[in-house]
Design brief:
Blueprint (H helix, E strand, L loop, with lengths): L1 E4 L1 E3 L7 E3 L5 H9 L8 E6 L12 E6 H15 L7 E3 L4
């Protein structure tokens, strides 16, 4: 399922093996969130996350609870902190 804010559609599965690219995160976030309005009380959560080379245009973006988004982002950031850009990781969405 590919989300674009509040609407979704079927599509090709998004990759689960991702490449860390912290330097591209700002542009990826701009590209993935473009055209998706903010919604009071929620945050826009993108997959693949912006910190990965595979993020950006074409990412699935869904409005979710802000504390869930912040908590999962913090957990992922802390777990991946020791890894260098270019490292490939497998993300298991549950």
């Amino acid at each position: 399922m590919i989300w674009r804010g509040h609407s979704h559609s079927s599509g090709s599965p998004l990759p689960s093996v991702l490449t860390i690219d912290r330097g591209g995160a700002h542009q990826n976030r701009k590209d993935s969130l473009r055209g998706i309005r903010t919604n009071r009380g929620t945050q826009r959560d993108e997959y693949p996350p912006a910190m990965f080379k595979e993020g950006g245009t074409g990412a699935s973006v869904k409005h979710i609870n802000g504390s869930d988004n912040g908590g999962s982002g913090s957990t992922m950031g802390n777990a991946l902190e020791p890894l260098l850009d270019g490292a490939r990781v497998k993300i298991k969405v549950i």
